[in-house]
Specification:
Chain lengths: ~110, ~230, ~400
């Protein structure tokens, strides 16, 4: 079970990455350290999807791309009814997909004022 | 026709039902689909529309068509209690059929949804019209629904978030029952159900003389035998 | 470098394939292309190499080694054969590799066949299959899909440039109108702009797929195959028709995880691929007479028309509104009907775009013909824009 999400920080130049890469996009170095990726973020864009793929028995699910204060942008699920670009969300880690014998964990964002 | 005593004892006692007021929906092509309730004497024509699909195995059309055929036959010849049938027509041509019945005053029993012309969300519109009939015109509290195909399951159970109630057995073979409650209907109605009333006289007149489809997307090369 | 042309084209009717197996479908397109080029399938046929483009034959049709199977089915042995997978850009990638094979001098004649038979699985299994091209941990596992990214991209475009849902419907209707004149297109029914965009029933009959994208802003799921015969221009007289020259090919990649892109409304791989193709062809955007752009989602046609230089960034939807992308307009886009109306069998799409351009440049496009088209551009978009191939064809003057 994974309850934390990470940014991958280049040990050479400090550039942050998510997801993981094997070479730094800025300086090309190849070693990284894991930094907790948590806290508040801002919604860059979002969508509510109605035709979900195999494995999701729900009528719809919302997704977004959010930007953390450290500049990293990531995709994740969003649990909110009234979404807007630019709104603040808080980060949590939860089950994003149920698998056979193994659940998948990832970002689930929720409005800050909830 | 004189109904003899034996026949009388075989027929169900019928509950008076409010009529479904006809409406029309503008489809993506700009064509207007009229949705209306058929009268009992129109059933034979509808049977002819259903019949060719009784041998199409794909997407469970054979089961849906065969069952609908027998349900409508039961309606025609007084062997099903409180049944109704709505049809969708475009320029008079039958493009979809839905049916169901009242289990009692409060509970509806959804039977089948059959699309004869594909690609315009006709099935979804007619299913919504059927639910509209149960809730908004017959003032029912819930409708029991089952799906025979995976497509149906996606469309009804998941999209309407139906409540699972396996402890009650649906008439269609006792397969797992799902329920559309009044609350769920109110939640989803705006996004699923549309159409306008009244239907202009001319449009309604065309719809009242339904024409059998000459082609079926599900049956390539279909030719209707002239009688 | 040795010049390469297209001597023959073939195309199955897109939609639901009911005439047999996956290889049957590929064969049908292949035979049509061979016939078009005047190549007889007998000893000495001269086909040196076969490339098959498919994203999902292994995953959804449970068949691997498809190119080897096709070579044998067509009795083109002992030609060389490989299957190429580059997501929805597999088709253009295979054409590019065919080009490289001939330009290098290793081959004189290459058959490229793209195909996908997707309608063997349900819609949601198909959506899942297509989503496997996304980043596994950062995207796919979340339930994110291609429509989801297209929806998020559309929202940004709307907020930044003022694109409306109605603009997307305008593009959609235009492509459907073109498809009516293309016998191999999947959909020959034309939606009414009023009904899908303006009518009070519109929100129900044209429901959201991934907000703010609606059903008529998204391509259908199709089966289909398309084929082209590539030849060395120095051997053009071997073939029945005068080959159409491949003037330029460009390809570029972008971040796998869409969220990592610096400017989320940019499609950098499209921009770069097109630039490279223009450079190779020695042409500019204004030299192009007809274009096939990858409109899996209608917003992509708008954004790509800007990235390839037809319009300023943020002006694509205005051009569509003004009819500049219709047949007879400034730059006709997706005369074939595009992915929206012609259909989008993933592996076939890139090849199908080339087939359409060849028909246009030969003057064989019938009711959708762009008058005196001499140059054509195709953009085949893989992933959510993380691997894009642009191809320019040119008709040589007599």
């Amino acid at each position: 079970m994974q309850l934390k999400m990470y940014a991958y920080k280049c040990t050479c130049c400090g550039e942050l990455h998510h997801p993981k890469h094997y070479a730094c996009r800025k300086c090309g170095a190849r070693s990284f350290e894991e930094i907790d990726l948590e806290g508040e973020a801002t919604v860059v864009t979002y969508t509510k999807v109605y035709n979900l793929p195999e494995g999701y028995m729900k009528p719809y699910l919302s997704f977004g791309i959010v930007k953390f204060d450290n500049g990293l942008t990531v995709s994740g699920q969003i649990e909110a009814e009234n979404l807007k670009t630019g709104m603040k969300v808080k980060t949590s880690v939860g089950v994003i997909k149920e698998g056979v014998g193994k659940d998948y964990y990832g970002f689930i964002f929720r409005p800050v004022d909830e | 026709m004189i109904v003899d005593k034996m026949e009388q004892s075989l027929r169900p006692v019928e509950t008076p039902m409010a009529e479904y007021p006809a409406k029309y929906i503008t489809l993506a092509t700009g064509e207007k689909m009229v949705v209306r309730q058929i009268k009992r004497e129109e059933v034979p024509l509808i049977l002819e529309a259903v019949k060719p699909l009784m041998t199409v195995e794909k997407d469970f059309y054979d089961i849906v068509a065969s069952r609908m055929y027998s349900e409508l036959l039961g309606y025609l010849r007084y062997r099903v209690k409180d049944e109704y049938c709505l049809i969708g027509t475009i320029d008079g041509v039958i493009v979809g059929i839905v049916n169901g019945r009242l289990l009692d005053e409060k509970v509806g029993m959804s039977y089948h949804t059959m699309t004869l012309r594909q690609g315009l969300r006709i099935g979804a519109q007619l299913f919504a019209a059927k639910m509209e009939y149960h809730f908004d015109f017959l003032n029912q509290e819930e409708v029991w629904i089952v799906a025979e195909s995976p497509n149906g399951f996606r469309r009804w159970m998941i999209e309407y978030e139906l409540e699972s109630r396996p402890e009650v057995w649906h008439e269609l073979g006792g397969v797992p029952t799902y329920v559309l409650t009044k609350a769920l209907w109110e939640k989803h109605k705006a996004a699923k159900c549309t159409g306008r009333r009244p239907v202009k006289e001319e449009l309604l007149k065309t719809a009242e003389n339904p024409i059998l489809p000459s082609t079926y997307a599900q049956i390539p090369g279909f030719v209707r035998c002239e009688k | 470098m040795r010049e390469v042309g297209i001597a023959g084209v073939g195309h199955t009717k897109f939609g639901k394939w009911t005439e047999g197996t996956f290889v049957d479908m590929l064969s049908k397109a292949a035979v049509e292309a061979l016939d078009d080029a005047g190549i007889r399938t007998v000893k000495g046929h001269g086909v040196d190499q076969v490339f098959v483009a498919s994203m999902g034959s292994g995953m959804i049709n449970r068949q691997s080694g498809v190119a080897s199977a096709l070579v044998d089915t067509l009795n083109l042995r002992p030609a060389m054969a490989e299957t190429i997978e580059n997501g929805p850009a597999s088709g253009a990638s295979a054409v590019k590799l065919g080009y490289m094979a001939i330009a290098s001098g290793m081959c004189n004649c290459v058959l490229v066949v793209g195909g996908e038979m997707m309608r063997v699985v349900s819609g949601w299994e198909g959506t899942d299959f297509v989503a496997t091209m996304l980043h596994p941990e950062a995207e796919y596992n979340y339930g994110l899909t291609l429509p989801a990214f297209a929806g998020m991209f559309t929202r940004l475009y709307m907020e930044k440039y003022g694109v409306t849902e109605r603009d997307l419907s305008i593009v959609s209707v235009k492509n459907h109108e073109n498809a009516v004149h293309n016998p191999v297109a999947h959909i020959h029914v034309v939606p009414s702009l009023y009904a899908i965009a303006d009518d009070e029933d519109a929100h129900v009959i044209n429901p959201y797929v991934a907000e703010p994208l609606r059903m008529y802003h998204v391509c259908p799921v199709s089966d289909g195959a398309a084929a082209v015969v590539l030849c060395a221009m120095d051997q053009a007289d071997r073939f029945a028709k005068k080959p159409v020259k491949i003037a330029g090919i460009g390809q570029a990649t972008d971040t796998h995880s869409v969220a990592e892109r610096e400017v989320p409304t940019d499609l950098l791989a499209v921009r770069l691929a097109a630039q490279r193709a223009y450079d190779m062809a020695g042409l500019k955007p204004q030299d192009i007479d007809v274009a096939e752009l990858h409109d899996a989602f209608q917003i992509l046609e708008v954004a790509e028309s800007e990235e390839v230089g037809f319009f300023e960034k943020g002006q694509g939807h205005i051009a569509a509104r003004n009819g500049e992308t219709r047949i007879g307009g400034k730059i006709p886009i997706n005369t074939s009907g595009g992915l929206k109306a012609k259909g989008h069998p993933l592996g076939a799409t890139g090849v199908s775009q080339i087939v359409e351009l060849v028909r246009q440049l030969r003057g064989e496009a019938g009711g959708r013909q762009v008058q005196d088209a001499k140059t054509g551009l195709a953009v085949n978009f893989g992933g959510f824009g993380n691997n894009v191939v642009a191809t320019i064809l040119a008709r040589e003057e007599e």
